[in-house]
Amino acid sequence: MCSWLDKSVGDFDVVIVSDFGNGFITPEMIKPLCSRSRFLAVNTQMNSGNRGYHAITRYPRADFVSLNEPEARLATHNRHDSIEHVAQSLSAQLKTHHFAVTRGTKGVMLFDGENRQTHKVPALSTKVLDRVGAGDAFLSFSAICLGGGLSSDVAAFLGNAAAALDVQIVCNRDPITPVDLYKYITTLLK
Asked: 110 lies in which domain range?
């Protein structure tokens, strides 16, 4: 796997890593991911099996990081400062261009390190059936937007719209289709 990553990861426009902390992604795999990816988006998920031992600081570099608030606070060991301060600290430490913090009912905050701006998008869904996968939907859609050159405020909005659709799907039974996302965004903008 490491030799394939070393040889091939640079062939992709955007590389999205969802690191669940189960041991599959090793430090040897992280090296080519961080050094060879054209645009690297990373999420390190905290769960009961890795709480306290798995943080974004495993990655020395990423272009875009998306974490939920507890994951960001764990990585900085900072439970009291503003989430904006936490995001800016991690962004500087990891040399990211964009750092997002998903906050559930409080929406999402995306810090654009290049322009030193913070964009906040409120929660866009009033109907929540299942939260599982919402952060992954946000990460994926926002990463594609940012990797494709869209502005950070647009990426935050589109990613948040995808997450809003995702919380209306039980157990990731159905994918978020482009048609559904377009209809949802059109409805939101009316």
From this structure: 2-189
118: which 2 tokens?
A: 């913070």
Quick one: DSSP state of residue 165? Answer: H
Letter for the amino acid at 121? V
Answer yes or no: is pLDDT of 172 > 90: no
Q: Are 89 and 121 in contact (CB under 8 A)?
A: no
Residue 137 has pLDDT above 90, yes or no: yes
The total domain count for the chain is: 1
Q: Provide DSSP, 120-180.
A: EE----S--S--TTHHHHHHHHHHHHHHTT--HHHHHHHHHHHHHHHTTSGGG-S---HHH
Q: Please give the model's pTM, rounded to 2 decimal places.
A: 0.93
CA angle 2, 57, 123 (to 5 degrees): 110
User: What CATH number has the domain bearing residue 131?
Assistant: 3.40.1190.20
